[in-house]
Amino acid sequence: MFKFLRKYNKWILAVGGTLLMIVFLIPQAIQQLSQRAAAESGVWATVGDDETEIPVQVRRQCENELGVLEQLRRVDPSMMITDQPAHWFLLVREAEEAGLVGGRAVDQVPPEQMSVYNAVAGNTQKVDDAISKRLAIRRLLLLYQNAAKLSDTRIRRHAQKQFHTVEARIVVLEASEEGDVTPPSESEIVAQFEEFRDVAPGAGDQETGTPGFGYRLPDRFKVEWLRIGTDSIRAMVENSGAMNSIALFKHWELNKDKGFPTVEDGAAVPEEVRTDLLDELTAAKRDEVERFAGDQFVAAWRKLRSEDGYRVLPDDWDTRRIDFRELASDLQETFPGLALPSYEAVGDRWLTLEEVDELEGLSGAATSAFGPRPVQVSTLIGAIKEFGGDPVIPIQQGITGPVLSVGENQDILFFRITETDPARPPHDLDEVRDQVVRDLKRKADFNRLLARKDSIEADARSRGLLTVAMEHEVEINPSTQVQLDNMNLLAFVLQQNVQITRTSSLPVIGSHVATVERIIERALELTANRTLAETPREERIFVVPVGDRMSLMLVELTTESPLTREQFSQLAGYGLQGLLLSDELTEIEPNVADTFSVETMTERHNFQVVRRVTEEDETEPDAVADAETE
C-alpha cells in the first residue's frame, strides 16, 4: 500500500487537489449563477396605467443601444439624444406607439453614411437596431415640431435676428468709484454689507441688469516653493568627469543607430555625439536629484498616522517638517557643482486660485503624477484637503505636494501650502469695507449716468461719439462687428462637435448676449422699411444701459449685413432649420424640450423604477437631454 502511495503520490495530489478546488468553488459558482439569473429575470420598472412590468433585460438592451449611439457620436453628434436608459426606453416606446419604429437602418440611411456608422460601431444587428430606433425618435420629434403653428415667415424672422450682422462704432462709459458722487453713509455701507455678506462675487444678471455684488471671501492660501534648475544640473554634468573622452567615444560606438558619423581612428568626436550624451546624462542626473529631494520629504511624514487618505499632523509639525532652504543647501552639498536651488514664498498676503497663474515662478507648473494629462498647480491647490479635498489628488496643508515640472527646460519644483483660509463670509465689515465702499460709489455713479442717459444720447447725436468719448476720457472703438450668431462658426461647431462662443464680444464689456440682442433688435427696427444707409445718422446713434456691468454703451450703427435668401437656404442645407425652430419653440408652451423631457415622459407613461440595477443607478439622473433639432 505504501509502495503504491509513494509511486503515485503526485497523481494522487493532483487529482485530490482538483477535487478539493471543485468542492470549494462549486457553491460560489452556483450562488453567483443564481444571483445573476435572479438579476436578469427581475423586474426593472413598471409602465402604463396597468403597470406593465419591464424586465431587467430591457434595461440591459437600452444600455447597449446607448453604448452604440455614444460611439456614433464621434461622427454624428446628433445621434446621442440622452444618456439615461429610462429616458431612452420612454422615447422608443412613444415612437413605437406612434407607429414610427420599424424597418432596417441600412434601408433608411444613405449607403455612404451607413458605411461610416459601421466603421465606427461595427456592422451588427445591434448597431442597426439602435440606429433604426434613433431615426424613429427623430421622426417623432420632427412630427411634433411641425405640428406647432409656426409659419415659415416666423422662422425666417427668427433666423434673420440670429444672423443679422452690423458694424458699429462703440463708446463705453463705465461707472467709476472716482466719479463725482457723495460718499456713502455708514448706514448704507452696513446695509450693503449685510445684504451681500454671504454672496460670492459674480458677473451679475444680464437680463435684469443686476450687478454681481458679493463679499464672500474665496479660498485663500499662502505658499512656498523650491525650484531646481535643469540648466544648473546640465552645467554640473558638463563640468564633471562623466563627459571625458573615453565616455564620449564609448557613447559614439554604442549608438551608431542614432545616425552619428562613422567612427574613425583619430577622428574628433562629433558635436551631436557630445550633445546626445550630455542630454542623456542630464536626464539621469535630474532624476537622481529629484529622487533625493523627494526622499527627504517622504522620510519626514512616512511614519505619521493616516486618516481618510490624509496625514494627521502633530502640533509641532511646523518645526519638524523639512525646511526648503535647508534642503537647498543639502542638495548643493550632495551634488557638488549644482547651483543653489532658488527658494521663494508668498507668506505676507493671501492668494486666491485665480492669482496662481499670474504668480511668477509658480505659474505654468504641472505634474503627470495623476494620469497621462498634466495637472496644473492651480488645480492641485484647489484640491487640497482644507478646500474640500479630492479623493484622486490627496494634498494637504503642511505636506509637500507632488514634484512639478515648470518652464521650457522642465525645472524641478517642489511646493507646499503653508496656510489656508477656506471660503467663508467675512468675519466683520472691516475685512471688506474698502470693496463695499467702492461698489457703492460705482453704483451711485452708474445711477448718475442713467439719469443723464437721454442727454448723453442727444449730445452724441448732435456732436458725435468722438466728442463724447474725449470729454469722458475714454476710447472709441472705430469698428465692431455685432451679431448674435455666426454662420461659419455654427457650421464648425456642428461638424467638430465642440463648444465655442459665437456671439460677438463687445469692447470693454466683453461677451454679453443681452446687449448684443438689444443692438440687433434696434438695428432691425430701424431697417424695417428702409436700409441702414437710408437711415439718418442721428437715428443710428443710441444708448444701451448695461446694468450688470454698471456701464452705458453708446452705439453708432455704420453698416449692416442682413441674412440673405441664399444664406437661409445654406442654413437649411446645414440641417439648422430644426435648430432655429427649437429656439423659437422655447417661447411656446408646451415646447419640445419640456414635452419629451425625462420628467414629463415619466409622468405621462406612469413609469416607475422598481429595482435599481447598479449602484450607479441608485438615483435616476434628473438631467434633461435636449430635444431633437434637425
Give the topology.
Layout: H1 2-7, H2 9-40, E1 43-47, E2 52-55, H3 56-72, H4 85-97, H5 111-121, H6 125-147, H7 152-163, E3 165-174, H8 186-196, E4 220-228, H9 230-238, H10 245-254, H11 271-301, E5 306-307, E6 310-311, H12 317-320, H13 324-334, E7 342-352, H14 353-356, E8 366-367, E9 375-376, H15 377-382, E10 404-406, E11 411-421, H16 433-451, H17 453-463, H18 465-471, E12 476-482, H19 487-496, E13 505-506, E14 510-511, H20 513-526, E15 541-546, E16 551-561, H21 565-574, H22 577-585, H23 592-595, H24 598-604, E17 608-609
Antiparallel strand pairs: 1-2, 1-17, 3-12, 3-16, 4-7, 4-11, 5-6, 8-9, 10-11, 13-14, 15-16
Helix pairs in contact: 3-4, 3-6, 4-6, 8-16, 9-11, 17-18
Describe the model.
With 630 residues, this protein is of the alpha+beta class. Helix content is 46%, strand content 14%. It has 24 helices and 17 strands. The strands form 6 sheets. A 4-stranded antiparallel β-sheet has the order 12-3-16-15. Helix 3 (56-72) crosses helix 4, helix 4 (85-97) packs across helix 6 and helix 8 (186-196) crosses helix 16. The longest helix has 32 residues, at 9-40. The protein is extended, with a radius of gyration of 35 Å.
Summarize the structure.
The protein has 630 residues and is of the alpha+beta class. 46% of the residues lie in helices and 14% in strands.
Low-confidence stretches: 29-40, 581-590, 614-630
**What is the approximate shape?**
extended
Count of alpha/pi helices: 24
What is the tally of beta strands? 17
Structural class: alpha+beta
State Rg: 35 Å
What is the helical fraction, as a range of percent? 40-55%
Estimate the mean pLDDT confidence.
Answer: 85
**How is the largest sheet built, in terms of strand order?**
12-3-16-15
Q: How much strand?
A: 5-15%
Distance between the termini: 85 Å
The largest sheet is: 4 strands, antiparallel
